[in-house]
Structures are given as structure tokens and as C-alpha cells.
Predict the structure.
Amino acid sequence: MKIHGLMKMTLLDFPGKVACTVFLGGCDLRCPFCHNSELLDMGAPAQMEEEELYAFLRKRVGLLDGVAFTGGEPLLRTDLIPVMRKIRDMGFEIKLDTNGTHPQRLKEIVSEGLVDYVAMDIKNSPDKYGVTCGLPDLDISNVSESIQFLLSDAVDYEFRTTVVSPYHDEESFQKIGPWIEGAKRYFLQEFVDRETVKYQGLSACTEAQMQSFLRIVTPFVKEASLRGIS
């Protein structure tokens, strides 16, 4: 497996754990607000090979609690599962970031006990999903299947939405709430413009708007909060 980036230590990416974050290239969505647009292409230059990652982790046994896989979309990688097995055998906990478009692979990883925490993006309400993902004709049935699987509590998880103007409004969250009803955790994340965001004209919603969106979704989920509000 080619590794496209490594954050050697983070206290933020894996809740309650000291972890490293492994970035994997390749994504099947084209969200205009993506922070990791350089990783969309599976052919992006690799920063390290699989064996180098294992060597790094062997030196961090007892220092790191876990490994967080992000992308891109990690579940695109058919070689992810054997890598997870090796990392699990080294004693690390594993977190997975996913957009939910590969529910069968998600179920396989969970059923094999290879992941401790899943963070799934909810891009927008179902009627706005494709446009928000940069793919207007996107079939969201796989996304819905992943949502329902995580709602079954087969693994610890969170849902999260990066809130971007002009893609999100009150109507968005009036529809997202019932879609993820009963969810354990749901975070609304503030969009931050960066050089790696390819599209211009995008901005964060105001704090007042974010608070309004939070009030809309709170009745539908067990825990809801804002993340990254400056």
C-alpha cells in the first residue's frame, strides 16, 4: 500500500486517543470544499510505502494508542484490510474516516473487528447530496446503507457535516435530522478555506447560523455539538 501522508501524532483525530493519522489517496466524490483535494487522484505521489509505516509504528508501541485512516476515501483501497490486520496485531486501536459510499467493505472491516471508531461524513440532505459532492447524479443508496449500518451500533461512531455556504441552510438540517435519527453523535464542523480547496467563493456560515442548525438537529440525535467554531 502506498501512503500519501502521515501525521505522526494527533490528539484530535481519534477521540480520547493519542494517535497518528494515515492519509490515503483516491476518492470517489468531488466535493468542492474538500481540504485534501491533492488526494483525490489515486495516482498522487506517495510519501512512504507500507513497510515504512510498520517500521514507524513499531517504534511508537506504548507511545501511541491508535491509528486513524483518512483520505481521500480509505475504503476505496482494496489493500486496506490486510494493512489494518497487521496494525491491529501490533496492538493499536484503529479509527476510520469514510464518506459511506462503500457499505459492504465497511461491514467487512467492522465484522472482522478491525476498527474501533468510525467517523462518517454526512455531506448534506438527500436531495442536495449529489450537488454538494460535486456529482449531481450520485446514487446515494450506498450512503443510506452505511448510515443504517452505523445506527445499528455495530461499532462506535460519529456522523459529521462540514457546513459550507452556500450549500447548507436550515432546510438541509431539517432533512438530515430525520435521516440520521437516533445517532449516537453528530458534529457540525465549521468550513475553513485553505489553499488546498480548489473552488473559490465558498465560506463558513455565521456562528448564529451554526447555532440555528444545531438546534434543528439536536432533537433527532443523542449528542449534537459544534466543532471548530472560531
The helical segments are 50-60, 80-89, 103-111, 129-132, 141-151, 170-179, 207-217. The longest strand covers residues 156-163. The radius of gyration is 17 Å.
